[in-house]
Amino acid sequence: MADKILSDKLRGKTHEYRRLILQLCNKAKGLHIGGDLSSAEILVSLFQHQLNIDPKRPDWDGRDRFILSKGHGGAALYLVMAQRGYMEMEELFNTYKQHETRFGMHPCKELFPALDSSSGSLGHGLPIAAGMALAAKMDGKKHRVYCLIGDGEMNEGSVWEAAMAAAQLKLGNLVAIVDVNRMCLDGFTEEIMNVEPVTDKWKAFNWNLAEIDGNDIGQILDAFDHLPAAGGGKPTVIVARTVKGKGVSFLQNEPAAHHTSINDDQLKAALAEVDAAYESAKGGKNA
Ligand SMILES: Cc1ncc(C[n+]2csc(CCOP(=O)(O)OP(=O)(O)O)c2C)c(N)n1
Predict the structure, then answer these.
(1) Which architecture does CATH list for 4-282?
(2) What is the mean pLDDT of the chain?
(3) What is the DSSP letter of 194?
(4) How does pLDDT run across 147-160, given as a tens digit for each residue?
(5) Who contacts 276 (Cβ-Cβ below 8 Å, separation ≥6)?
(6) Which of 41, 96, 209, 276 is the most buried (most CB within 10 A)?
(7) Residue nearest to ligand 1 atom 7, measured at CA
(8) pTM for the whole thing?
């Protein structure tokens, strides 16, 4: 069972994240809000807890690596990095998607070296992560390499080449997390390119597997706690079942919410909804 103080802290940080990503979506006149909301709990749990990282030393060699393979969620990654102290939240809000910014729609390591990799062209994150994991293993290093991919991204053949190689090379230090929000760019994966049965596919590629509700902090923490030793053996995949647009009813399971802007009235309604859900989960304001 996950520690209650830690879970409560992460729930609070996730609530803060949801408010901020909605505000950024409004200010920037659009971002990939659907997937940024589905992966909220995963990203916050990684950056606030699981990753062994030091924002003051982003190039520290012993750090865990993280690659956002679903790179269209760059705003989400930048946001959790700002929450963790890699840069000022104000800079992100003032410059995101602006001319000559460090923070464009897709993560760019050349502009922001604290990233472990650039991303945006789907299908490349897991191959890069597998290479990093292999290098760490060959050098006898202890860190892990984490990679977040989308379920729509599983359409890319390079994901499966990397999956096959990682099992063959026994990359026990590699952790893939799949954000299975059942949707891709323009609709449901089931109708466009069916990726199910997701768990059977990864098992067939000989990976350790955990299947969780990816919007449940407790289940995410349990999956992290049960990761096998990084030293050897199979790579691990966490199949995280989530809801695209999670927490905002007019964005949830809505194909148009893959990338959209939200106006001031919609922002107000969305913030009221996420605030109410958070207060109710805590047991009411005066509890
Ligand atoms: C190689 C490549 N092809 C197409 C795209 C355009 N594209 C951006 S997001 C997306 C859908 C991704 O779906 P999923 O991985 O499920 O992301 P999520 O629903 O979590 O946002 C596509 C096809 C791309 N970025 N890269």
Answers:
(1) 3-Layer(aba) Sandwich (3.40)
(2) 96
(3) -
(4) 999 999 999 999 99
(5) none
(6) 41
(7) 185
(8) 0.97
